[in-house]
Amino acid sequence: METLSIAERFDHLRLILSSERFLKMQVLANEVPFFICPYAAEDAVAMQKLIQQLTRRLQQDGVQVLPLDLYDVAVEILQQRGIWDRILQIEATTPKEKFIELLQNVLDPKAHLVNTMAEKMTAATYDVLFLTGVGEVYPYLQAHNVLHNLQRVAKDRPTLMFFPGTYRHTPALGASLKLFNRLEDHRYYRATNIFDIEP
Q: What predicted TM-score, i.e. pTM, was given to this entire model?
């Protein structure tokens, strides 16, 4: 992945995501249809453009994408619970650890976040789920925890998480999920690096 240009990444992703093998989940060695698209944090702006262009191109190819931004979903939950304005007011004066703990409780993936995501998934017609906003919600939401809890509601169609960091999964070393290529986001073993899939 590190050696691929943005254009080459686009071509690889389009080829894989529009293939019948991928859409029917025949490329999997495991039972959970989760894929990770790692990218360097400094490529964030270019990757945002790539995701938008890829979504449009896939739709032209007849592949419906459901984009879910974790930050947007988090804000929506806080607004629905009537505490968004309060969160904004106390952020500057609340100790960081306490503030993070508050957000972790309110946005807990098992109790709240994934349920909201499931509602959006049920209401939509789509072939592939795109998850973005991973870096924006750290540390109160962490990728491994989101994926772990998403397993119960996202088994029927592929999910692709765009991850600003590295993800490697080898038999010898196990899984390594590193946000911004610096912060260990715990180990998550059940996803496949999308760049490890051959066209």
A: 0.90
- Give the three-state DSSP class for 117: helix
The CA-based dihedral angle spanning residues 65, 177, 33, 71, taken in that order and rounded to the nearest 10 degrees? -30
Q: What is the DSSP string of 157-196?
A: S-EEEEEEEEEEEETTTEEEEEETTTEE-----SEEEGGG
Alpha-carbon distance of 56 to 53, in angstroms, equals 5
Cα 163 to the center of its chain, rounded Å: 6
- CA dihedral of residues 67, 138, 115, 111 (deg, nearest 10): 180
Residue 74, helix vs strand vs coil = helix
Tell me: the pLDDT tens digits for 142-160? Answer: 888 899 999 999 989 999 9
- How many residues does this entry show for the chain? 199
DSSP string, 85-99: HHHHHHTTTS-HHHH
Share of the chain above pLDDT 90, in %: 67
**Closest Cα to residue 163, out of 40, 17, 75, 71?**
40
CA dist list (Å): 136 to 22, 41, 111, 132, 186: 28, 11, 20, 9, 17
Cβ neighbours, 10 Å, residue 66: 19
- Rounded Cα distance between 13 and 163, Å, is 14
